[in-house]
Amino acid sequence: MLPLTDTYQRKFYYLRLSITDVCNFRCTYCLPDGYRPSKDREAFLSVEEVARVAQAFGQLGTTKIRLTGGEPSMRRDFSDIIAAIRQQPAIQQIAMTTNGYRLAKEAANWRTAGLTAVNVSLDSLDARQFHQITGQNKFTEVMAGIDASLAAGFPVVKINVVLMKHLTQQLPEFLAWIKDRPLQLRFIELMETGEGNDYFAKHHLSGEHLRRQLVDQGWQIVTRAADAGPAQIFIHPDYLGQIGLIMPYDKGFCDSCNRLRVSAIGQLHLCLFGEQGIDLRDLLQADAQQSALQERIQLSLAQKKQTHFLHQGMTGMARNLSYIGG
Ligand code: SAM
Ligand code: SF4
After folding, report:
1. For residue 324, is pLDDT > 80?
2. How far apart are CA 259 and CA 272, in angstroms?
3. How far does the centroid of ligand 1 lie from the alpha carbon of residue 230, in Å?
4. DSSP string, 188-219
5. Using a 6 Å cutoff on CB, does residue 265 contact ligand 2?
6. Structure confidence at residue 78 (pLDDT)
7. What pLDDT sits at residue 315?
8. Which residues contact 180 (CB under 8 A, 6 or more apart)?
9. pLDDT tens digits for 7-62?
10. Please, are residues 126 and 142 in contact by the beta-carbon 8 Å criterion?
11. Is the CB of 130 under 6 A from ligand 2?
C-alpha cells in the first residue's frame, strides 16, 4: 500500500493517537490547573474503535503509532489497547509518551503486550523542581520507571524535556546523566498554546541556542528514518546516550512532517496547531466501514496546509497539548 501523501508530496507513516484527555499531573506548561472534565464530554475511543483506527491507518501505509494523551496510562485497558494495535501487521512500532507514574510497575507488562518504545517526560533532574513543574512529588517513581523500561528491554527509551529558559543551567547535569545511559534525551522547544500565551512569553527559549552549544561540544547530527519523529538527532563518541532537538519554530520544520493525529474522541487532526478536527467516529463503529473510513482519511489529506502559523501567534484549536496529545 502506498503511504498517505499530501499535496506537498509529504508522506505519512506515523500516527499519534490520543486515547484520553485525562491526566493526573499538572505540568505548568500544559495543565497548570490540572485536568478538568467538561460536562458534555464525549466518551474516549474504545479498544474496538482504536483497533479500527489502527487497521485503517495501517492499510494506508502507517507503520508507527504513538499512544499519547492526556496520560495514556490512566486508561485501565491500556494493555488491551496495545494488544489490539499489535494485531495489525502493518504497524511495526507501537510507542507511548508518558509522564512515567505507572512505568515502574507496568513497563515489563506493556513490553509483553507489544509496546516497542517509551518516551518519558522528565523536565528536571532535581526532585524539588520536578515537583514544582509537574505538581506531583513523584520524581523517585518516574526515575524508577525509566530504569524499569531499560530493564524491560525496550530498544529505545526517550526522555522528553521541554526546553525552557531555566534549563540552560541544568544542561551539564542532563548531559552527565546520559554519558553512560542508552537514553535519547529530547529537548522540545516550548510551544505556544491557546491557554499558555503568557507562559510562553516568559519561558520560551529557542532551540538554536542549544543546537550551537551541542555542535561546539562535538555533538554531530545524524540523518532521520522515514517514520522517525520530528527530532534532529545528535550523537557524540563519548556518550552512550543521544540528544534529540525538536524545534517547531525552525524554518523548514513542517517540510519533513510525516505524522497525523487522531484525538481521544476520534477526530483526525492534520496538524497539532490546525483548526477543526475531521470526525472519524461515525466510521469506527463496524469493520464493514473500513473502506469508507480509509477514503475519508485519504480525502482529508488534501486539506493539510503547508505549514503551521505559530510564528504569527496562531495556535489553532490547541488549548493545551493534553487535548490532542503533544
Ligand atoms: N502525559 C504524557 C506526557 O506528559 O508525557 C503524554 C502527553 S504530553 C501532552 C506529550 C508531550 O508534550 C510531553 O512530553 C510534554 O512535555 C509535551 N508538552 C506539553 N505541553 C507542551 C508545550 N506547550 N510545549 C512543548 N511541549 C509540550
Ligand atoms: Fe499531563 Fe503530560 Fe500535560 Fe504533564 S504534559 S500535564 S503529564 S498531559
Report:
1. no
2. 10
3. 14
4. EE----TT-HHHHHHHB--HHHHHHHHHHTT-
5. no
6. 98
7. 57
8. 240
9. 888 999 999 999 999 999 999 999 999 999 888 889 999 999 999 999 999 999 99
10. no
11. no
User: What would the grid cell of residue 256 be?
Assistant: 519533513
pLDDT digits (tens, 9 = 90+) for 143-179: 999 999 999 999 889 999 999 988 888 999 999 999 9
Sequential DSSP letters for 121-165: E---SSHHHHHHHHS---HHHHHHHHHHHHHTT-SEEEEEEEEBG
Residue 317 has pLDDT above 60, yes or no: no
Cell of 240: 552512550
Distance 21 CA to ligand 1 centre (A): 12
CA distance 23 to 192: 20
One-letter identity of residue 251: K
Lookup: cell for 51? 483497533
CA 71 to ligand 1: nearest atom: 1
Q: Kindly report, residue by residue over 259-270, the tens digit of the pLDDT.
A: 899 999 999 999
Buried/exposed 177-210: b ≥16 CB within 10 Å, e otherwise:
bbeebebbbbbbbbbbbebbeebbeebbbebeeb
Nearest alpha carbon to residue 259 among 95, 20, 103, 44: 95
DSSP for 78-133?
Answer: HHHHHHHHHT-TT--EEEEEE-STTHHHHHHHHHHHT--EEEEE---SSHHHHHHH
* pLDDT at 250 exceeding the cut of 90: no
Map out the domains of the chain with their CATH numbers. Answer: 4-312 (3.20.20.70)
Residue with cell 528514518: 225
Q: DSSP class of residue 65? A: E
Q: Are 210 and 245 in contact (CB under 8 A)?
A: yes
pLDDT digits (tens, 9 = 90+) for 61-115: 999 999 999 999 999 999 999 999 999 999 999 999 999 999 999 999 999 999 9
Residue nearest to atom 13 of ligand 1 (CA): 121
